[in-house]
Input
Amino acid sequence: MKLYTIGGYNEVGKNMTAIEVRDEIVILDMGYHMEELIDMENPVESTATKSLIHSGVIANDRELYKQKEKVKGIVIGHGHLDHVGAIAKMAGSYNCPIFASPYTMKIIEEQISQDDKEVKNERIVLEPGKIHNLTSKFAIEFVKVTHSIPDTMLTVLHTPDGRVAYGLDFRIDRNPVLGNTV
Output
């Protein structure tokens, strides 16, 4: 198993991680670096992807892009822009489906509709507790967690090498304002 820490590890935001198992890769999150986004002079929708990478608004996915045929899925845990904002700019470079919870997928759809790039990736809505078999090496499961945005999920990747739990943002909230206690 190989872990790619592409964005969100040296800064707050610009979240993007990938897991490789036996020549297949799943990307987790594609977000904006919010401080860099706020400092931009031009609207992000009309800014080229390369310019956004150069300015630090989105993660540099060069290492993954060189292996784009290995990428089998993009999984988004929740709808904050530091996790989902770069989908419209980056997802179309990968020939694979995008997975998200129902609310998060609505945010993704809105981001894509506002952008100049065409994103043809299949979009698959996953409910918590269901396991989706992506390939023989990856299955995806969402586990509901509380956060400051509805439909936040911790992602569990089931692989032949074991399970990987990925969740950068969540909080233990015994009395959430929205939804049930998890």
